[in-house]
Amino acid sequence: MPARRPLRPAPRPGQPLLPRRVATLSVHTSPLDQPGAGDAGGMNVYIVEVSRRLAARGIAVEVFTRATSSDLPPVVEMVPGVTVRHVSAGPFEGLGKDDLPAQLCAFTAAVLREEARREPGFYDVLHSHYWLSGQVGWLARDRWGVPLVHSAHTLAKVKNAALAEGDSPEPRARVIGEEQVVAEADRLIANTAEEARQLVRWYDADPARTLVVPPGVDLDRFSPGDRAAARRAVGVRDDALVLLFVGRIQPLKAPDVLLHAAARMLADEPALRTRLQVLVVGAPSGSGLAEPRQLQELAVSLGIADVVRFVPPQAPDSLAEHYRAADVTVVPSHNESFGLVALEAQACGTPVVAAAVGGLPTAVEDGVSGVLVDGHDPADYAAAIRKVVEQRELLSAGARRHATRFSWDRTAGSLVDAYSAAMAEMAVPPLVRSPRDRVRDAVRALSASGVTR
């Protein structure tokens, strides 16, 4: 089947080739889902914020995601210029993320049918998020004749190398799927220079096609405010020492490290029990059915259930109040491609204690906006928390300054540059295109002529 080549006028000499419409693929989680539970997290925030900024630049965005309920409308306008399309692919409920590879054919067919209803060239670029979406994008790329830009968000080889105790390794099928997407994508978007190095070193990515585009933070929503008012809003005492964890409750995020650190602090200073408050904001990852009360039971076994409060995932404005109310936000993850929670907390003026893994050394400036910890020894986290509390006023100012270096507007601008470069590359005449793309052109020609084996 021949590619449906875009029918659009070429730009005038010297003008960049700008996209008019982006097809964003997010198979396993919807940008409309509440982050902090199930499979919704930083990737959801990323898609929402980038889509809004692209729309503000006059670039339409259509997000394709799998429908998980029969009650969901087929199409939702998230904001003007951003449309979310719920794709039927497999049962609405009861499928975990590991079940979704079997539904990729159905999902891809629905995406291709939607585009086939349009004039050729309706979409100018594909942006896939996570490897499942990359598999769909790879096929759509060759069918539509538009570039595929891919964001991995997490990488199986990296996760398996830093596997948390009690966590399951990522399957070989995912590793293979990621390798295929890395090989086929026209551009790979890495959150940090470290992620870019991992793509090149572990997946043999082409360095010339691997770009570093840091995520941003909403500096208007996540901003310093009245701390006393924030504490009243979230229900903690003015004199409390508040330690905050935000995220999905799963071994990878290591909220257990915070609980063990809190227990260590109480053992070292028993009088602290009257003031210490540990807030865990989030819900179990995935279906949440495997061990839904594991963390609560750990708090009981450590003898700290009286100082730990579990809070369901919060809407952005309420989440900002929790950040403002906290003395320290703790991010003890075993791996993070970036760490948006750390950035949001710092934007609110709250310093962070974080693991020195993945993208967190970029998200947190050690000694300036918080403290980075090597390893996951609770004693080291207890010591780091004490250090931050002692220097909180200085670190709070540094946290906000550091956060202002990151902006969703800058993220969107860099993505538009990546889209434009990939579009221009695909528009180059075949004789001067890369060997990889010339092979693709030959395959398309054979398909168009009806040659089969």
Write a structural description.
The structure is a single chain. This protein has 453 residues and is α/β, with parallel strands linked by helices. It is built from 16 helices and 14 strands. The model is unreliable at 287-292 and 445-453 (pLDDT under 50). Helix 11 crosses helix 14 (392-403). The strands form two sheets. An eight-stranded mixed sheet has the order 3-4-2-1-5-6-7-8, sandwiched between helices. A six-stranded parallel sheet has the order 11-10-9-12-13-14, with helices on both faces. The protein is globular, with a radius of gyration of 23 Å. Helix content is 41%, strand content 15%. Helix 12 (360-363) links the parallel strand 13 and strand 14. It has helices spanning 42-56, 104-116, 130-144, 156-161, 172-184, 193-203, 227-234, 255-268, 294-302, 316-325, 340-347, 360-363, 378-390, 392-403, 408-426, 435-449; strands at residues 21-26, 60-66, 75-79, 82-87, 125-129, 148-151, 187-190, 210-212, 241-246, 276-281, 308-311, 328-331, 352-355, 370-373.
Number of strands: 14
Structural class: alpha/beta
> What are the secondary-structure elements, in order, as H or E?
EHEEEHEHEHHEHEHEHEHEHEHEHEHHHH
Low-confidence stretches: 287-292, 445-453
Percent in helix? 40-55%
Largest sheet strand order = 3-4-2-1-5-6-7-8
Strand content: 15-25%
Largest sheet: 8 strands, mixed
Query: Roughly how many Å is the radius of gyration?
Result: 23 Å
Q: Total number of helical segments?
A: 16
